[in-house]
Amino acid sequence: MLGSTNPGDHDNRPWHAQAGDLLGDNYNVPGLVLCALGVAALACTLTAAAYGDATWTQTGAIATAALWILGIGALIVEHRREEVIERKYGRPGHAPGNPRPVRYSAGGVVAPGDAAPETLG
After folding, report:
1. pLDDT tens, residue order, the chain (121 aa)
2. Cα–Cα distance measured from residue 18 to residue 32, given in angstroms and rounded to the nearest whole number
3. Owning domain of residue 38
4. Where would you find the membrane-spanning parts of this chain (predicted)?
5. For the chain, how many structural domains are there in total?
6. Is 12 exposed, middle or buried (0-12, 13-18, 19+ CB in 10 A)?
7. Is residue 52 one of the residues assigned to a domain?
8. Cα gap 101→32, rounded to integer Å
9. Is residue 118 part of a domain?
């Protein structure tokens, strides 16, 4: 059941990405770069269209679509890889590859058995 505090209920919860997962994992970089290049290609395509150059407009449209498809595909593949890692360790999200459960708070990251983190400021 979602929102339950019973630790045994975590096995039945669906896996979901947490805030910051997209930027916190270095394996997302190729997908992010491809999507950014797709935005640049879109700008070039619109510029070519404004000048009335049909050949470059068509080429740019194909390049834009290809870059976005590859970029989003890379992000989806990475999301699935992270999901497999998280399910392997029985966690509903965060800290891919870390076998221990991690609790996040405003004061810092606390793993069970660790000393309390130092507060900021």
Report:
1. 444 445 555 555 555 666 666 666 688 889 999 999 999 999 999 999 999 999 999 999 999 999 999 999 999 998 888 878 777 776 655 555 555 555 555 555 555 555 555 554 4
2. 17
3. 16-110
4. 32-52, 58-77
5. 1
6. exposed
7. yes
8. 28
9. no
